[in-house]
Design goal:
This protein has helices at residues 3-38, 57-76, 83-104, 109-125, 139-160, 166-186, 189-209, 219-238, 242-247, 250-265, 278-284, 289-296, 299-308; strands spanning 40-41, 53-55, 215-216. It is mostly helical and 316 residues long. It has one domain (3-308).
Length: 316
């Protein structure tokens, strides 16, 4: 992408971010009476909160992201195909429906994973068919691996959403970095818009989720956020940014994967709620929420990567 287009995106980005943040905040305020009646999260063995707290803020995040995405693409008159984005948001709505159901009452593991797998498969189907991450692997095998990896990424995002500002600290830097990388020509316009819209929506949500949080995302937010981030990271990895696609969500990947392996080794039932993630153990030992939020943010890793190898994501 040439310098002129980069400057053009620099002018568009604040408008998309601001629109998504304001719309998300407005939706949260409008939805509050509904959430107070139907979406009160009670403390459980996994939770970090001690008193009943509203959940379901993800409804506003996902709605704002979707509306602003389509609005921005309409006003930008983007010429790129819109079908992949329609498929992606169909998957997002499906997995959000699974999440909102789980927020109201528990869903058995098998149907929950099956519905999540369908949503992830739709999101992978929305990826360009000629996009390859590891060309040495057969296409069909790579796609199956992406669905399995996407299913894990969706669930680890849900697992890690257990602390005030935790998902904000992960999502805002990742989407901001993806948008910045995208304007160099690595990502298509739709992906840049999705990154900016999700980043803005999470900024709008952050005020209500600040410590001590008055509102949580709920599964209706964490699951589709994980799906959307996964889709964006697959696009990044398939366009020459494999290393960056791993570095950006590295804390989430490391904490959740190490915790899962440790629980499997210990013979624990991994589908049950627990408090053995590193961030949970840290806060249980008195580590401040703000301090952990700063430590877990991937922005430092992202900036280091850009500083050392600013061309890491360019196509060869």
């Amino acid at each position: 992408m040439d310098g002129g287009l980069t400057v053009l995106w620099a002018a568009r980005a604040p408008a998309i971010l601001t629109a998504a943040a304001l719309l998300c905040a407005a939706l949260i305020v409008a939805l509050r009476p509904f959430l107070e009646r139907y979406a009160l999260a009670q403390p459980n063995p996994r939770s970090s909160h001690k008193i009943p707290t509203l959940q379901g803020g993800g409804i506003a995040v996902i709605a704002a992201t979707t509306v602003v995405c389509y609005g921005a693409l309409y006003f930008l008159a983007a010429s790129a195909p819109t079908l992949p984005l329609a498929i992606l948001f169909t998957a997002v709505i499906l997995i959000a429906a699974v999440g909102v159901t789980a927020d109201i009452r528990p869903i058995d593991v098998v149907p929950r994973l099956l519905l999540q797998a369908i949503a992830v498969a739709l999101a992978i189907y929305a990826v360009p068919p000629d996009l390859r991450i590891l060309p040495i692997v057969p296409w069909w095998m790579e796609r199956i691996a992406l669905v399995i990896g996407g299913l894990w990424f969706v669930n680890l995002t849900n697992f890690m959403d257990g602390l005030d500002w935790m998902t904000v600290a992960e999502t805002v830097p990742i989407t901001g970095a993806l948008a910045a990388i995208g304007v160099t020509g690595v990502l298509p316009p739709q992906a840049i818009v999705v990154s900016l819209a999700l980043c803005g929506a999470m900024i709008g949500f952050a005020y209500f989720n600040r410590p001590v949080a008055k509102l949580f995302l709920g599964d209706v937010g964490s699951l589709p956020i994980g799906l959307t981030l996964g889709w964006l990271l697959v696009l990044l990895a398939g366009n020459g940014g494999r290393t960056a696609a791993i570095l950006l969500p590295l804390y989430y990947l490391a904490d959740s994967t190490i915790t899962l392996v440790r629980r499997l080794i210990n013979g624990e039932k991994i589908w049950l709620a627990h408090r053995s993630h590193f961030y949970q153990r840290a806060t249980d030992r008195g580590f401040a929420v703000i301090g952990w939020w700063a430590a877990s943010s991937p922005s430092i890793s992202c900036l280091r990567r850009w500083h050392l190898q600013p061309c890491c994501c360019r196509r060869p």
